[in-house]
Design a protein that fits this description.
This protein is mainly alpha-helical. It has one domain: Cytochrome c-like domain (Cytochrome Bc1 Complex, Chain D, domain 2), CATH 1.10.760. The chain contains six helices and no strands. Bound molecules: heme C.
Length: 108
């Protein structure tokens, strides 16, 4: 019986991870709310709004979770992040991380 329980737990771990698997297309749709500031593909042309395009996926997740929990404080972003689910954060981060964007500038 114990072995069966252990096996069940091991077998369900990948399923629980998959529950928050990122969905690129959903991320694109959800990003419409963010486009006003961060640009349609995350390449904001306004310097007060950071570029999200091409940023590391893990960093975007970390930043959004920070705003949502209050660990990272910003009046504007906290408001937007509060309404995001774990799934939203995964989807949005997937979408922005796959856009052409952030790159190293050549040395002057
Ligand atoms: C009203 C303008 C506005 C909207 C809309 C907005 N943001 Fe932001 N966002 C900002 C500003 C300003 C910052 C910089 C905040 C700071 O200094 O921490 C920021 C920062 C961020 C960061 C951190 C970037 C970094 O390099 O650390 C992420 C990630 C982010 N926004 C994602 C989103 C997502 C996803 C949405 C849509 C759900 C969104 N934002 C909607 C204004 C906005």
């Amino acid at each position: 019986m114990k072995i069966i329980k252990v096996l069940l737990i091991i077998l369900t771990i990948p399923l629980s991870i998959q529950n928050v698997a990122a969905d690129y297309n959903a991320g694109q749709e959800k990003s419409q709310v963010c486009a006003g500031c961060h640009g349609a593909d995350g390449n904001s042309q306004i310097t007060m709004y950071p570029r999200l395009a091409g940023q590391h996926r893990d960093y975007l997740v970390y930043a959004l979770e920070g705003y949502r929990s209050g660990d990272r404080k910003n009046a504007i972003m906290s408001g937007f992040a509060k309404g995001l689910s774990d799934q939203d954060i995964q989807d949005l981060s997937e979408y922005y991380s796959m856009q052409k964007g952030l790159k190293t500038l050549p040395k002057k």
